[in-house]
Amino acid sequence: MSTENQSTKEKKIEIYSTKVCPYCVKAKKLLQSKNVAFVEIDVSDDDDLRMSMVERANGKRTVPQIFIHDYHVGGCDDLYALDRDGKLDELLKPFLV
Ligand SMILES: N[C@@H](CCC(=O)N[C@@H](CS)C(=O)NCC(=O)O)C(=O)O
Predict the structure, then answer these.
(1) Which residues, at least 6 apart from 54, have a Cβ–Cβ distance to it below 8 Å?
(2) Which of 63, 76, 77, 82 should be mutated for ligand 1, with most atoms under 8 A from CB?
(3) Residue 16's CB: how many other CB atoms inside 10 A?
(4) Are 40 and 28 in contact (CB under 8 A)?
(5) How far away, in angstroms, is 76 Cα from ligand 1 center?
(6) What is d(CA 74, CA 66) in angstroms, rounded to the nearest whole number?
(7) CA of 75 to the centre of ligand 1 (A)
(8) pLDDT in tens, 28-59
(9) DSSP state for residue 95 in the 8-state scheme
(10) Which of 67, 72, 71, 94 is closest to 9 using CA atoms?
(11) How far apart (Å, rounded) are the C-alpha atoms in residues 20 and 4?
(12) What predicted TM-score, i.e. pTM, was given to this entire model?
């Protein structure tokens, strides 16, 4: 495997979510429509995991919190705003499946 492929493989899109969360569903729908793979981290029943999300998201406590590799997008509204501004597709390019 080339170095480029290797590094792309190590990068990932992560979405912190809970089981009942309309904004999470909406955010995942947009990611799915873009044909990218993402990792979902369910923090519903895990306070430690939720705290690590809050730390990583600079104090944001709501779900979803979305990360494109190490770029913190924010929540669902932020994801849709990026798309409206025409910036999302470029960020998602390395993750197309
Ligand atoms: N504007 C935020 C709204 C997110 C939001 O309100 N999420 C709800 C769940 S759908 C939430 O986190 N509520 C508080 C909680 O679950 O602790 C976004 O677009 O992500």
Answers:
(1) 60, 61
(2) 63
(3) 26
(4) yes
(5) 8
(6) 5
(7) 8
(8) 999 999 999 999 999 999 999 999 999 999 99
(9) G
(10) 94
(11) 37
(12) 0.91
Q: Could you tell me which CATH class the domain 3-95 is placed in?
A: alpha beta
Q: Among all chains, which residue has been given the structure tokens 């197309």?
A: 96
Answer for the pair 91, 79: CB distance below 8 angstroms, yes or no: no
Q: 45: which 2 tokens?
A: 């029943």
Residues 18/42, Cβ–Cβ less than 8 Å: yes
Entry field: residues in the chain: 97
User: What is the token pair recorded at 12?
Assistant: 């990932």
CA distance 32 to 29: 5
CB-CB contact of 43 with 16 (8 Å): yes
Q: pLDDT value at position 9?
A: 54
